[in-house]
Amino acid sequence: MTMHAPTPATDDALTPLARAIAFYLPQFHPIPENDRWWGQGFTEWTNVVLGRPRFEGHYQPHLPADLGFYDLRVEETRIQQAELARQHGIEGFCYYHYWFGGTRLLGRPLDDLRSSGKPDFPFALCWANESWARTWSGRDHDVLMQQSYSVEDHRAHIEWLAPVLSDVRYIRVDGRPLLLIYRPDAIADLARMVDTWKTHCRHVLGAEPWLVGVRTGFSVGSTSVWAAAGFDGVVDFQPSRHHFPPARSNAGRAVAIARKLLPERWYDALRNNAWLGERELNNIVDYRAYVEGWINDVPAPWLPHYPCVFPSWDNSVRRTAATIIENHDPELYARWLAAAVERVADRPLDQRLVFLNAWNEWAEGCHLEPDKRHGLSFLEATASALMRRSISFSEKG
Hints:
Blueprint: E1 19-24, H1 32-38, H2 44-48, H3 75-87, E2 92-100, E3 103-105, H4 108-116, E4 123-127, E5 132-134, E6 139-145, H5 151-165, E7 172-173, E8 176-181, H6 190-205, E9 210-215, H7 223-229, E10 233-236, H8 250-261, H9 264-271, E11 283-286, H10 287-295, E12 305-309, E13 313-314, E14 323-326, H11 330-343, E15 353-356, E16 360-361, E17 366-367, H12 377-387
Parallel strand pairs: 1-2, 1-15, 2-4, 4-8, 8-9, 9-10, 10-12, 11-14, 12-15
Antiparallel strand pairs: 2-3, 5-6, 7-8, 13-14, 16-17
Protein name: Lipopolysaccharide biosynthesis protein
Pfam families: Glyco_tran_WbsX
C-alpha cells in the first residue's frame, strides 16, 4: 500500500492542489562552533538585527512579528511554527542537514523533534553538502568546515540517516522517504554513493529513498548525470544565481576583489565606509521581472523537475555587494506559486511536489514567517495558491 505524509489540515478542510514543502533553516540556536567562529551566542538573528536601508526605498531590516526572535531549542516555538505552516496549506518542512565526515552541525532542532515527537508535523531532510566559509562576512575563501567524501563516510552517513527516514512523520513519495542533496555535482563518486544509500535503505527500511538533487545557479554539468546515478527528481532552486546580474559599477567590482584579498581589519573598515551604501554597488533585481522570467522558462529534460518559489530575497545583511530582489508582493508571489502548482498538476498527487524557499531564511530576506511589514500576507498568499481560493492581502504598515 502506498504511504505518504498526512494531508495538512486547513481552515476550510480543502485538500491542497500540490504538496508544498518549505525549506527550513536550523540556525536559530547557538552552537560551540559558531561561538568560536563568530562570537559567543551567535545565531541567525545576530546578522538580521544589523540590517539597514542602503538606499531610499530599500526594505531593511526584516524583523519578525508573530513568532518574535525565537530560539529553536524551545519546543513551544517549533510547535507554533508547525501550526502556522499547517494552517496555510504547507505540508511539511525540509530541514537543512549538515554532515561533515561524521560531524553534524546545527542538529539540535531535528534531534529534539525526533526525541520528543513534537511537533507532529511532516518533515524531510536536505543534505547541505557544501563547505562552510566566512561567506556571511564576505570572505568566501576562509574555510571553516571542509566538506569531504569517501566510501566509508557514505556508508556511515546512510547508517545515521536511515533511522531518521523511518520516522512516521517523515515525508514520503509513493511510499519512499524523500531525501534531497544540495550539491550532487560536488560528489565525485555519486553513482556509487547512491547505490550504497539505496541498497542500505532497501535492506533496513524496505524502501529506497526518493532521491532529489537541488539545481542551483552554482550547479555544473547536466542533470542527465544525476539521472544516470539513480536520482528520482530535481528541485529547481530559486532564486537561481545565474539569473542575477553582475556587479554593475567599478565600486562593486572593487569590493568583490577586496573581499578576497584584503586583510580582515581593512575589509571591515571598507564595509563601514559611507560610499558603500550607494544603490549602484548592489545587484538590484525586480521581483515582477524575475517571476515573469520564471513563468516563461522551460524546465530542462532528463528528470522530473519540482518547482521552487520564494516570497522575497535580500542578502544585504550578509553581503557588502548584495543581491536585492525588490518590489516583492504577495499577489505576485501567489501568481507564481499557482503557476508552479500548474507545472505538476498532471502528476499523481504524491508526486506533485512544490518547494518554498524558505520558511525562515531571515538573513537572506527570504521567509514566509510573518515580519513587521507584511504580517501574514505571504502565508495567506501561499494558502490562496495552494487551495485556489480568493483572499485579500492586507500588509502591516
